[in-house]
Design brief:
By secondary structure, this protein is α/β, with parallel strands linked by helices. The protein folds into 3 domains: about 100 residues, Roll (Urease, subunit C, domain 1), CATH 2.30.40; about 120 residues, Diaminopimelate Epimerase, Chain A, domain 1 (Roll), CATH 3.10.310.70; about 230 residues, Metal-dependent hydrolases (TIM Barrel). Helices cover about 30% and strands about 20% of the residues. The protein is built from 19 helices and 23 strands. Strand 19, helix 12 and strand 20 form a beta-alpha-beta unit. The longest helix is centred in the middle third of the chain and has 17 residues. The chain is globular.
């Protein structure tokens, strides 16, 4: 259909429309029927204005394709909004953390769970995890479970441990930790050591989880994020989480586009339900698409549980982190899913875990060749050059979080040698290897705000200003490409979104700061003024110009 035959539903004019890497900029953009209709000069696009066209004057502001967080946890993020906020800004000291727990307990009945999220022992004033006895004092009549920012470690009080059946005689399970000091439980649990507690946490209803999707999704839209990968459907409430997504989608309560990763772990899996329901990677529609299968193979670098081939600083030669599964288990799980046609997005942070995952994925691709499958390694932060070559050969994609360097980079420098930290999250090398590195936050592990990600991709600086691996810095256009087209590529959707060109989905974000020309430091204070999803304005900042 000729563009002259229609009038646009929405036009943004008088600004700078960044269409995508290598595609240049326009002054205006028109949307029609949920998609991009045309881009061009203000004069060219003015001919598409009709009596019902909504016209937004940009006053020079920047328009970019809707951002796509390629790995975050939407349900846990929305759920955490209703839990105790223990992030460093809210609870910078141990006393503040305990006060927040005490305050929540005071508003609950005896026996009700106090659940909190986001503390970082590295940033607490005492530089350690809280102890169970301290949580006991803060909430003597309530079970308490607080999760570290990385989501791989937690601390429980005595009531919670008792409900989970954990006592001083309970051994640490394979791939996990139930910590003791001097023979007594500290309350700290890691990786598979958390599972007895997760099994006794209060179950959420479908309606509860739809509310989490709505809360989290509305916040993402306010930041210019129009698509995300829900990185582990079923991680906490099993199949109920998939039912919640289906309900949200069916009833129009799904705020943004979601690529749904399916928990297929050894002890937490919805894969049998998915197979019974006939789901397969790539199925669905533009709003809700079935994605890859998720397996956890190790923990986090900040928690010293990412599996490394060289030890962490300050420990002994055996301080190598944790592998959650045996090599044979990973190979068997991957081979079965690959033969069934599923894509995989496997959590592997340390190079020992990455070895395990590459062995399994390579074996599956040899067994059942499919060069276009685009299996992924989630996080993939601490890889070696030989592993980079293996990824390039099999076209196994990295799904990194550059913002980890911004928030955790200074911590990493206390855990690992400086040269290992500098070589981590190698965005430049991945691009040159043709691996299309995407950008994401792993929220609620770090803040969902994309600005820290963009800043760190361009500067390789931490929040304290420490420069780490400057040779891996990107141009701002490369950084934006990672957050848009490359994230779409990671979901096999680059043909329908990620650039502002005619025919692609009408998703865009308007920022008050011109990322293409501003100083890198100005990125951090930028604001999203307007978000467009499917050609409709779905968020407007209060007081935004235009």
């Amino acid at each position: 259909m000729s563009t002259a035959a229609v009038h646009a539903d929405l036009i943004l004019q008088g600004g700078k429309v960044w269409r995508g890497l290598g595609l240049g900029c326009a002054e205006a953009i028109a949307f029609w029927g949920g998609k991009v209709l045309a881009t061009g000069t203000d004069i060219e696009i003015a001919g598409l204005i009709g009596p019902d066209t909504r016209v937004e004057v940009l006053d020079g502001r920047l328009v970019v394709p809707g951002l796509n967080d390629a790995h975050m946890h939407l349900i846990p993020y929305g759920t955490a909004m209703a839990e105790v906020d223990l992030r460093p800004a809210a609870a910078p000291t141990l006393d503040a953390l305990l006060a927040a727990v005490r305050e929540r307990a005071a508003h609950l009945g005896p026996g009700d769970w106090v659940i909190g999220r986001g503390y970082d022992h590295f940033k607490l004033d005492l530089g350690r995890h809280p102890y169970r006895e301290e949580l006991d004092t803060a909430a003597p009549e309530n079970p308490v479970y607080i999760v570290r920012t990385d989501g791989h470690l937690a601390v429980a009080n005595s009531r919670a441990l008792t409900l989970a059946g954990i006592d001083e005689e309970t051994p640490s399970p394979p791939g996990g930790l139930i910590e003791r000091q001097n023979g007594k439980l500290t309350g700290l649990v890691a990786e598979t050591g958390r599972e007895p507690l997760m099994q006794v946490l209060p179950a959420a209803s479908v309606e509860d989880l739809v509310g989490s999707i709505e809360r989290g999704g509305a916040d993402l839209l306010s930041r210019g994020i129009t698509s995300c990968m829900e990185a582990a459907v079923g991680i906490r409430d099993g199949w109920t989480e998939m039912l919640a997504y289906q309900m949200a989608h069916r009833t129009g309560r799904l705020p943004l586009r979601v690529y749904a990763t399916l928990m297929g772990d050894k002890t937490r899996s919805i894969l049998p339900n998915c197979i019974e329901a006939g789901m397969i990677s790539g199925g669905g529609d533009d709003m809700f698409r079935i994605g890859p299968v998720k397996i956890f193979t190790d923990g986090s670098a900040g928690g010293r549980t990412a599996a490394m081939t060289r030890p962490y600083l300050g420990g002994d030669t055996e301080d190598l982190g944790l592998l959650c599964l045996e090599d044979a288990e990973v190979r068997e799980m991957v081979l079965d899913g690959h033969r069934r046609g599923f894509r995989f997005a496997i959590h592997a942070i340390g190079d020992a875990a990455i070895d395990q995952v590459l062995d399994a994925l390579e074996a599956a691709l040899i067994d059942t060749p499919d060069p276009g499958r685009r299996h992924r390694i989630e996080h993939c932060g601490w890889l070696r050059p030989d592993q980079m070559a293996r990824m390039a050969s099999a076209h196994i994609l990295p799904a990194p979080q550059p913002a980890f360097l911004y928030y955790f980079g200074d911590l990493y420098l206390t855990l690992l040698e400086a040269e290992r930290v500098a070589a981590s999250h190698p965005m430049r090398d991945w691009i040159e290897a043709g691996l299309h590195p995407s950008a994401s936050t792993d929220c609620p592990v770090v803040e969902i705000d994309p600005l820290a990600n963009l800043y760190t991709m361009v500067t390789r600086k931490t929040e304290r200003g420490t420069e780490i691996g400057a040779d891996q810095a990107l141009s701002i256009e490369e950084a934006l490409d990672a957050y848009t087209r490359a994230s779409a590529y990671a979901a096999h959707e680059e043909d329908i979104k990620g650039c502002l060109v005619a025919g692609q989905l009408g998703d865009a974000a308007v920022f008050d700061t011109d990322f293409l020309t501003c100083a890198p430091e100005d990125i951090l204070s930028a604001r999203c003024d307007l978000t467009v999803l499917g050609g409709r304005v779905v968020f407007e900042a209060t007081g935004a110009a235009g």
